[in-house]
Amino acid sequence: MESYNGPPVRPPSPGDKKKAEGSFARRNNWVIIVIIAVLLIAAGGWFLVSRVNTLKRVYSVNIPQDSAVNDSDDYNSPNHKIVYELDTVFAKPYLAAKIVKLNIKGAAMCYKLLDTTSQLFTADTRAFHNRFQLDSHKEDSVYVMNFISNNTKSWGDGSDTAYLKFNINPEWEINIQAGATDLDFDLSKYKVKELKLSGGAGQFVVKMGLPLQATNINVSTGAADITIAVPKDAACSINTNSGLSSNTFDGFIKKDDDHYETPGFKSAKNKIFIHFEGGVSVFKVEK
Fold first, then answer.
1. Domain total of the chain
2. Does position 7 have pLDDT exceeding 90, yes or no?
3. pTM score of the predicted model
4. d(CA 160, CA 151)
5. Is 37 part of any domain?
């Protein structure tokens, strides 16, 4: 057995043991902290990517080439472009209401009435800036729906669009309040009791069907281009309070400076009453 001639070996003291154990614990603690930090960063990154993918999706959106709404406009049209947006579909199940009052409010929007629906009302919104909500309640015999946006400012790039569908059974009272707006409504299939359009700059194109006993249309705009098409044989009266606006009412008889009627208006049973009010707008009624 070999003998040891070196310096005497001192056994580790309790202090040395504590230092070694503390150093080991500190190393382990840093490893745990780094692992937790990496996991938190990874989880945060995954959540952010997931959220962005949920809110910003790529949709193929129809862009009709003609401003008029027709039955051939659908989501399978080859006329489309790719946009990034939040897509939300609102729907109100059908109920047997004789009169439905629909209040629409949203600035910097494009509203398109696509077709009828078996539900009472649907809206497919494709929006960057507007976020809508739909609520409803009953007021006596009238069923009221409010389709309201939280954006009250007239700003944006005009890409926000709401594609709407109505049920043909009830009588409709439609009230639209908007800022800079493009609106394209073919209401020829519906029973419209009242239509109110209030907006700033923009373009409003409305096609009406045969009137009820009394169908009232009230338009109030700032600097907009408004075209209303009425059935050829419909009795129609127009009153204007339009300041510097331009008026074109082909097929109407001028009764005075602010009043126009179709021939035989007074003796007609069912009538359309149109009232225009605007600053420097262009008002046009055609048959």
1. 1
2. no
3. 0.70
4. 11
5. no
